[in-house]
Design goal:
Blueprint lengths: L1 H29 L10 E3 L6 E3 L4 E3 L2 E3 L2 H17 L1
Antiparallel strand pairs: 1-2, 3-4
Bound molecules: zinc ion (ZN).
């Protein structure tokens, strides 16, 4: 009876190990290849802060960290253009 119990425990252990490995593989596959902080970073034209590409506010070729900085940058830029 002792040996049978040992074999059952080993089989159960192997089964759990396989299930665990399969579950881990599924979790890894579900994860996107590049997480947010590993994505492409772009520098804000106004303050120079780096922001993830998908969060960046674009205006033509310029990139900004926020709409507020885009507006500030454009106001400054337009004011500088008016002087010349
Ligand atoms: Zn900024």
């Amino acid at each position: 009876m002792g040996l049978l119990r040992l074999i059952l425990l080993i089989v159960l252990g192997a089964l759990l190990h396989r299930l665990w490995k399969r579950w881990r593989a599924q979790q890894a596959a579900r994860r996107p290849p590049a997480s947010r902080d590993q994505g492409h970073m772009l520098a804000c034209a106004h303050c120079g802060m780096y922001v993830p590409e998908q969060d960046a506010v674009r205006d033509g070729t310029q990139v900004f960290c926020s709409v507020a900085h885009r507006n500030e940058y454009l106001n400054k830029h337009r004011a500088a253009q008016r002087k010349t």
